[in-house]
Amino acid sequence: MTELAFSTATELAARIRSGEIGSLELTDHYIERIERFDGEINAVVVRDFERARAAAREADARLAKGEASGPLHGVPITIKESYDVTGLATTWGLPVLKDNIAGSDSESVKAYRAAGAVLLGKTNVPVNLADFQSYNDIYGTTGNPWDRTRTPGGSSGGSAAALAAGMTALESGSDIGGSIRNPAHFCGVYGHKPTWGIVPPQGHALPGMVGGPDIAVCGPLARSAQDLDLAMRLLAGPEPLDRPGWRLDLPEPRGASLGELRVALWPNDERAPVAQEIADRVAEVGEILAKRGATVSDSARPSFDPRDSHRTYLEHLQSIMSAGVPEETYAQLKQAAESLDPDDLSDAALNLRGMVLSHRDWIRANHARERLRYAWRAFFDEWDLLLCPQMATTAFPHDHADFNERTLDVDGSPRPYFEQLFWAGLITGSYLPSTVFPTGPASDGLPIGLQAVGPEYDDLRTIEFARLVADEIGGFVPPPEYR
């Protein structure tokens, strides 16, 4: 039965439809694995097993009458804790919200239920979804199934860990600073950060926040590129207020083979250096593509200064992350920002200014972003895809020290902890889609994932590329302890 745990959602749905296995049998199988393994991993922190079993029984009964609900009929899934699920708490890891019980489902949960999925529960997150790790005072710390002394990433760390350990068939996370992509990389699974604005974010918000935040997205994690494709076709579409007149028509992937593609490589950058082994992995995948006939360049770049791109990203990121701070705190931040040297362009200074960004300055930052978007559009007129790292290292040991005291060890050199936002923000700040796909282990035995980036709205292209690469080098591999 172990192979069931690591089957793709697409495969499991086919087996249910064929009658090879029932939804209740499969649901019980995943529940048994959660109860057996999750005490040591701590990924599925909100469990809704009885309602899941009831939904699975109903799925089996409906299928017996020839009434399959959709492409995920009867398939058990989990979802990130930050999504609203009727009757369950939505806390974002904040103790003050431990009794915040959702009165309705988020849009993504509605889409999954409409497709026939059975919801097992919710997975762990960091406080306020603001870390490369996943721990909080409500649910505790989530470990990486490849090495539980290390982080599974954040903020969708529980999502990726549950998938990697074979405790769920499909997941959805959210991403503003790599929160889908970073855990996918650390845990050896697939994650897709969609083009901004194409997956409705309603029901993924703190209390009182109704409008979708700038640059933040909701999107799927899975054990295969095929499952990402399936999930995106279910999740993408207009948000509720736009449905009377807004339609989405994502382009289908172009090209049936790797050899037809034009791929640019960005293996490293002095702005945020990555471990040589990760930079080399970008080059190695590029060599495989070239051998298959693809046009590959390690020097092609969009026509902007990456420092300007990072500055614009941090302005937008911090203005969002600080939107809910108390007035007294905001006043203190504003006073500190006003005392900065105007020539100080350090990350600390950029972050502080972003936290108190005025609407006037946001308009200016938005113009800068639009220039970046046009530069990317011109770049993707010549290149189909960009390959680059997601993070500087493989999964690092748990580190719960103060943020200001944390560093990342990059080939023996301590680097600023949040410096690695560069690789996430390069893509996020300009609304681009990115699919993180596994490329095999590093020398330490931990997974390495890379970003496949495409032009806005070409989400299915980056996902299809990840599928084609898996045919060449292999895809998801279960962690040894959980096979």
Please describe what this structure looks like.
By secondary structure, the protein is α+β, with helices and mostly antiparallel strands. It has helices spanning 2-5, 9-18, 23-41, 49-64, 107-114, 157-164, 181-187, 225-235, 276-291, 306-321, 327-338, 347-355, 359-382, 421-428, 459-473; strands at residues 44-47, 76-80, 118-123, 135-136, 140-141, 171-175, 190-193, 217-222, 262-265, 295-297, 385-389, 407-410, 413-416, 434-441, 447-453. The chain is built from 15 helices and 15 strands. The strands form four sheets. It has an eight-stranded mixed beta sheet, with helices on both faces. Strand 2, helix 5 (107-114) and strand 3 (118-123) form a beta-alpha-beta unit. Helix 10 (306-321) packs across helix 13 (359-382), helix 10 (306-321) crosses helix 14 and helix 11 (327-338) packs across helix 12. The N and C termini lie close together (10 Å).
What's the layout of helices and strands?
Layout: H1 2-5, H2 9-18, H3 23-41, E1 44-47, H4 49-64, E2 76-80, H5 107-114, E3 118-123, E4 135-136, E5 140-141, H6 157-164, E6 171-175, H7 181-187, E7 190-193, E8 217-222, H8 225-235, E9 262-265, H9 276-291, E10 295-297, H10 306-321, H11 327-338, H12 347-355, H13 359-382, E11 385-389, E12 407-410, E13 413-416, H14 421-428, E14 434-441, E15 447-453, H15 459-473
Parallel strand pairs: 2-3, 9-10, 9-11
Antiparallel strand pairs: 1-3, 4-5, 6-8, 7-8, 7-14, 11-15, 12-13, 14-15
